Amino acid sequence: MAATAVLRRPWLGLFLLAACLVPAVLCGATTYVVQMSRSEMPASFPHHLDWYASTVRSVSVNSDESESATADRIIYSYETAFHGFAARLSEEEAALLEQQHGVVAVFPEVVYKLHTTRSPGFLGLQSEAFMGVWANAISSHDVIVGVLDTGIWPESPSFSDAGMGPVPARWKGACEVGGDFASKHCNRKIVGARTFSRGYEASAGVIDEREKTPRDRDGHGTHTAATVAGSAVPNASLLGYAPGTARGMAPAARVAAYKVCWPGGCFSSDILSAVDRAVADGVDVLSISLGGGVSSYYRDSLSVAAFGAMEAGVFVACSAGNAGPDPISLTNVSPWITTVGASTMDRDFPASVKLGSGLNKNGVSLYRGRRNLSPQEQYPLVYLGGNASSTDPRSLCLEGTLDAHAVAGKIVICDRGISPRVQKGQVVKQAGGLGMILSNTAANGEELVADSHLLPAVAVGEAAGKAIKQYVKTSRRPTATLSFAGTKIGIRPSPVVAAFSSRGPNFLTMEVLKPDVVAPGVNILAAWSGAASPSSLPADRRRVAFNILSGTSMSCPHVAGVAALIRAIHPDWSPAAMKSALMTTAYVHDNLLRPLRDAASGAPSTPYAHGAGHISPSKALDPGLIYDISRHDYIDFLCTQKLTPLQLKVFTKSSNQSCRYPALASPGDLNYPAISALLPAQPAAARLTLHRTVTNVGLPASTYHVKVSPFKGAAVVVEPSTLRFTKKYQKLQYKVTFVTKSRQPAPEYGGLVWKDATHSVRSPIVITYLPPV
User: Fold this and answer.
1) Which of 296, 668, 318, 633 is nearest to 510 (CA)?
2) CB-CB neighbours of 284 under 10 Å
3) Which stretches of 374-443 are DSSP H helices?
4) How many helices (H) and strands (E) does the chain have?
5) Number of domains observed in the structure of the chain
6) What distance lies between CA 599 and its chain's CA centroid?
7) DSSP 659-691
8) Residue 212 covered by a domain
9) pTM of the full predicted structure?
10) Which of 76, 367, 556, 708 sits at a 20 to 30 Å CA gap from 35?
11) Are residues 560 and 595 in the same domain?
């Protein structure tokens, strides 16, 4: 999907520099993260750092390696959310290290990628009643959100601390200064700013000391931080688009910026160190808009670090990824992480294409520049693909493919794919083109994402693109003009699940439904870096205070910000309780009261795309019931994953802790707010019973009745069908039994709802009929 923040950044492919360029490391060595069992440290070592160094020396391929050389190879020590270190090792050394006493696991370095305002109003966060509740809560409990990203631009008015009280005394963070980042750049809003670059430098090359500061020269981190907790800024816009007051989800919350991403990517050893430090600093919520490959829970260092954060009571929100609409494309799928997909809002930026034939086609654009096309005049139109199904590389408007003789003075049709959308317009402009029509292909369907183009340009859906190309093919002298209508509010239907948003099922454990929720992630206005252009292209000399971006990178901080609101109202809730509140109050109908649609197909969306649904912040503050999950519950879940004792130790951190018996009957018995049932193929065993426990966080005395969607292929029975609570925080159990009636070729979707007089607590249900073995 080309609508991601990351695909606008050509530098992400530049990290493959030789490790031998880095001083004090082994030629050919790679960074590995080594998890250690702190409880197994021999008493002969005065400090765990001495133990780590001795462990590395014991496997060194250089028998004469000095203590100082070993120390140079250890680039990080992890002490809070994770125990161990990161070091430069050869492949042989890494293999030997796995056999050493006290070593729990060895993770190779992984490069993560960034998953790149009306949203507060769209989410109902600007009502007087809601803001009153929030203001009262924040006065008694300060909430701090840690943002792992590209840093922060502190001069943005979104980070003004006007009216904020003193920084909480419990905060242990720091403001790292250097270069053009001074202590004055931290305040009562930006309470901390740190950089983590040792893993990057060990693999990709040394960063200039003047650049090694928390300052954001990319823009992505500033955008996500402002989305989480930006202060209210009136009269904000991008070049006049999306005008209004820009504010974050939790404008009274504090921000701690942890810079882990650099021009060559985001390295796992740096990310792990940032999570470890953030938990020690005292953050309440972590917003992490990046992801990498997923192979297992215990081999994913971010998953392991997030588990440690959860143990410390920190809520962790991560982006789902931008690989949709392909199925099984999710990242960050661990059940202790809140995985966030992307959806649209009811705001758009309409633009149109008027053809010489008189036909009009609608699209979107954020173009605002000196070069404009007259709506009353027609201009030559060209498509170098030749026909609607061409695979000619010129149709993609890639660098070096356009001939000035063919495009100069014309509007050029470019197909999406391979290169960033805005870069295609730059190629057209450099070749002398007057404008661009950016056409979706089958991979993008009818989803439209607006961009701040460098020349007049309109993005159109696949159907409109085909019609325009057909006109070019059949007309002797095809012409067109482009016009731009600014900002439009009240778009229907909305929200719609973004086509680029990554999809389930969760291939590691289908019984854990992912993503968890969706939130606004398309055309989001938020603060921007003064060092970057709105297009992120080097040739773009424009500078803006606010920018509009799309991606699950943008939806993740929406959820992190709402989690900050929940933490302020309910400071004693666990991360699982907060996630439950977000999920069980999410809605699954748009503003036309129809089921949420999928932008990729136009058909109704499924829980594999939207999870429990679209977040509803005001309802999440008072969910009625919650599905809580403890650390021990997660361990029981991991015991169903057939982990070896050593693999389980990655999470338990102790060789003395093993699986409890009886443990969970199946992974589906994890007390998750969503229900995913896998019905076996054998008729005699085509029955499944799952168990759940709900905690009353509403009125002390309340009675809930259950309602379950009908399913074609299975009967679903809930016992008991009524839950009577007599006090607050009381826990009651129920079970859901599925009995196959008629096996279905595809999954079925529905919901289970507990209702009392004021609350509706909904869990999505997915029933999958397993094929015969």
Assistant:
1) 668
2) 24
3) 404-407, 421-430
4) 18, 39
5) 4
6) 18
7) --SS--SSGGGS--SSEEEEE-SSGGG-EEEEE
8) yes
9) 0.91
10) 556
11) yes
Q: What token pair was written down for 239?
A: 């070049």
From 56, 86, 111, the end of a domain falls on 111
What CA–CA distance (Å, rounded) separates 522 from 119? 10
Beta strand 338-343 with 315-319 is: parallel
pLDDT in tens, 515-557: 999 999 999 999 999 999 999 888 899 999 999 999 999 999 9
Judge if 58 and 128 occupy the same domain: no
The tokens for 590 are: 């748009």
In terms of phi and psi (left: phi > 0; alpha: psi -120 to 50; beta: otherwise), the region of 624 is left
User: What is the CATH number for 222?
Assistant: 3.40.50.200
Question: Are 287 and 317 in contact, with CB atoms under 8 Å apart?
Answer: yes
Q: Return the H-helix or E-strand segment holding 734.
A: strand 731-740
**350-355 and 360-364 as β-strands: parallel, antiparallel, unpaired?**
antiparallel
User: 598 and 607 in contact (C-beta within 8 Å)?
Assistant: no
Give the whole-angstrom CA distance, residue 702 versus residue 264: 55
| H or E segment and range at residue 87 | strand 84-89
Is residue 1 included in any domain, yes or no?
no
Cβ 440 vs Cβ 354: under 8 Å: no
Model confidence band, residue 357 (pLDDT cutoffs 50, 70, 90): very high
Q: What are the CA-CA distances from residue 670 to residues 45, 538, 653, 660 (Å)?
A: 40, 49, 21, 14
- Tokens 């925080």 correspond to 729
CA distance 109 to 301: 9
Long-range contacts, 633-640 (Cβ 8 Å, 24+): 633/670, 633/671, 634/307, 634/310, 634/335, 634/336, 634/670, 635/659, 635/660, 636/660, 636/663, 636/664, 636/670, 637/335, 637/664, 637/667, 637/670, 638/297, 638/298, 639/663, 639/664, 640/664, 640/666, 640/667
Tokens read off for 320: 């789902």
Q: How far apart are CA 608 and CA 103, in angstroms?
A: 37
User: What does the alpha-carbon distance between residue 413 and residue 388 come to, in Å, rounded to a whole number?
Assistant: 11
Average model confidence (pLDDT) across the chain: 89
**Domain end among 620, 651, 674:** 620
Residue with tokens 């209210």: 232
Two tokens, residue 611: 């999870």
C-alpha span between 333 and 312 (Å, rounded): 20
Taking the CB of residue 712, how many other CB atoms lie within 10 A of it?
Answer: 9
Alpha-carbon dihedral 281, 332, 298, 305, rounded to 10 degrees = 0
Cβ atoms 70, 51 nearer than 8 A? no
- Closest alpha carbon to 269 in 594, 554, 570, 30: 30
CA 533 from chain centre, in angstroms, equals 23
For 312, counting Cβ atoms within 10 Å of its Cβ (0-12 exposed, 13-18 middle, 19+ buried), the class is: middle
Which residues lie below 8 Å from residue 707, measured CB to CB, with a gap of 6+? 752, 753, 755
Q: Which helix (H) or strand (E) holds 625?
A: strand 625-626
Residues 6 or more apart whose CB falls under 8 angstroms from that of 43 comprise: none
What residues are labeled active site?
149, 220, 553
Are 336 and 576 contacting, i.e. CB atoms less than 8 angstroms apart? yes
Q: Which amino acid is at 105?
A: A
Structural domain that includes position 657: 625-769
Bridge partners of residue 519, in order along the sequence: 342
**Cβ distance 138 to 253 under 8 Å?**
yes
User: 62-121 pLDDT, tens per residue?
Assistant: 777 788 888 889 999 999 999 999 999 999 999 999 999 999 999 999 998 887 633 445
Residue 195 · residue 151 · CB < 8 Å = yes
Q: What is the DSSP string of 298-337?
A: TT-HHHHHHHHHHHTT-EEEEE--S-TTSSS------TTS
Give SS3 for 181: strand
Residue-wise pLDDT tens digits, 203-223: 888 898 888 999 999 999 999
